[in-house]
Amino acid sequence: SGKVASGYDMVHYGHSNQLRQAKAMGDYLIVGVHTDAEISKHKGPPVFTQEERYKMVRAIKWVDEIVEGAPYVTTLETLDKYNCDFCVHGDDITLTVDGKDTYEEVKREGRYRECKRTQGVSTTDLVGRMLLMTKAHHSNMDNPDYQQHTDNFGKGPKGHSPWTGVSQFLQTSQKIIQFASGKEPQPGDSIIYVAGAFDLFHIGHVDFLEMVYKQAERPYVIVGLHFDQEVNRYKGKNYPIMNIHERTLSVLACRYVSEVVIGAPYAVGKDLLDHFKVDLVCHGKTEVFPDKDGSDPYAEPKKRGIFRTVDSGNGLTTDDIVQRIIANRLQFEARNQKKEAKEMAVIEAMRKREEDLIPSSGSRIRC
Hints:
lipid biosynthesis; Rossmann fold; ethanolamine-phosphate cytidylyltransferase activity; single chain; Cyt_trans-like; nucleotidyltransferase; phospholipid metabolism
């Protein structure tokens, strides 16, 4: 069994991908999640409370168990306590408050493994996108405002760290296959359909999908994701924060979801209901925006008597998260600059060490 420890402040598909890779290295995955106090000490203020973060990580389908309030530094003692053979971390650097490698001890004992960081997503980048209230960012990454902001946000004064910096996410069919369950509905399954933006996949979405999952004995939940342009039509501002490809992975990583329709029609019509043999269509307590022609997108399932409003008991919206981020903006920018500066110092030290080990090839000796 393997263990992964992290803060998982804004849980995004990059973290899910790390956990997917970690699970593939062993049989049983235990994930340690830090407390708010621990994150504040080492990284700055968390966006989500520890309770929200525990729930988010539990909802990721590759996770077998979580450890609440895990220590920031993973020791051999921690690994032994939970019967873990090794721990896994991304190929970036995590440093303690005094600049030491958090995984020094377990590396020394050969009980450390590494997984690849997902290109194109980081909390830094998502925060940058949220702080930019422009309509264009999801369709135009070359937008000068976006570039300027990512430059300010993902770069320190002296250079650019490959870990904290910003890059573009490129979707591939392979990535979707890795995230998809690949399970088809079985006879006796109840096929439940829900649709929406599911932007910045968060605890409000998890609570809703869990409640949807509980609507049947053998649920097969299909999530219809609207294209970016459609989301922008009814949500406005700079929504969606995450593009359709990113939202696809985010939703597929959730243990309550069996399948995703990428670019689902806004109106839940006859064709879709018949094609997927839908038994039940659910929607949360949030407002249902009318279709382009002013009609109710749920008219057909209502006519068939298969529409149900589900109350998740959680009113958190993507808008609320953006507000939390904006409220913490200055602290976030300071946190990222500090993290960047630490990483650049480590890169410089690694470069110096390499130079010391390799004698320069063109040196001549003069007598």
